[in-house]
Amino acid sequence: MKRLIPLLPALALCLGLTTAAFAGAGPKIILDGLELRPDVPPYQTAGRTMVPLRVIGENLYAVVDWNPARQEVTVVQDGKTIVLTLGSNRALVNGEPRMLDVPAVTRNGRTFVPLRFVSEALGCAVDYRSGVITITSPDDGSRAYLLEANKTHLGLRSVKFQGHLQGVIKVTGHGGTETESIGIGMRGWSGNPGQSYVVMKLTAPGWSESSEVYVDGENEYRRQDGGPWTVSPVLPGRPPGAGMQNPALFAQNLRQTTDLVGKLGIRTRFAADTRVNGRDCRVIVYQLGKNQFTDAGLTILDKVMIGDVEHVKLGVRIYIARETGFLVREVIGLEMAWGAPTGYGTQLTLNGTFDFTDHGGEVTSPDVSGAVAAKP
What we know:
By secondary structure, the chain is of the alpha+beta class. It has helices at residues 8-15, 53-59, 115-121, 142-154, 254-264, 290-296, 300-303; strands at 28-31, 34-35, 43-45, 48-52, 63-67, 72-77, 80-85, 90-93, 96-99, 105-107, 110-114, 125-129, 132-136, 158-173, 176-191, 195-204, 207-215, 219-224, 230-233, 269-276, 279-289, 308-321, 327-339, 345-357, 372-373. Strands 20-21-22-23-24-14-15-16-17-18-19-25 form a twelve-stranded mixed β-sheet. Strands 5-6-7-8-9 form a five-stranded antiparallel β-sheet, covered by helices on one side. It has a four-stranded mixed β-sheet with strand order 2-1-13-12.
């Protein structure tokens, strides 16, 4: 465990910144390129795939409600409302009756709903081939909205941010399990062109470490616990600040978010509008899986590659002010699981929220005049 904790600052910078018990039973479900791993496995009955209700809420970004008195499940998303009654083959979609091949049911204390029916009722395309269910969500205009917000962001002089990641590391093997809680506090700013500054403090029971990273567009400077600065050039072909280009810190440069979305063909979705820090916000969500991380060339897997990475899932939620187009908040959730040749398995959960303020305000760069060259 102590060997893993020092990796977290690198992980937080490279990833930016909920590990579940991953079940392998049931058909494989791919949503917009991401393999879903429900904590309770789906199952098939009468040729239909049943999934836990939680899967709908977390992955199709719908609001779900359970009424025990009426034995009803209500699913709401983007102006669509689906009402399912446990044990009944009759459902309502926006008030219109629809017939189901199989009804919603409870099983081992969990509510299961028919995946195809709910997905298609929410406008998704569903395809089933060779034991793999592929779901493609509709284009709701969120990607175009994100691109417009990107243009606004690139015109800003600077943006300040502050946030916190909270997580758990669980290591299992050789008959024992060890669990450790961790916290990562982060604050800083990004500025155009190509500048960024991050102060980070990592805490775990009986241990803490602070670090700073500053990028001036050409060089990257680092120091730990107030020690001396080291400097290394930004590598050719990498954009300034690429050492911190990552989903949780995408907001340091929203261009990095939209570049990744475009490169991988990620399908963003609008979630329900909300109010954050006194501003009415549009909310855009998307997810990344292991293959998408690899295809993007992100360095997260390299930083934790002390074994074979079995599972990666990152959910990103971006809040953009309606009136100004400014980024206001970003929320992330990360799940990772990997094994090692020594027989140990590791699960990591990180969840965090970052708020963004002082758009276009003054920023002060740290004094790095005495920095020495970093060791290769």
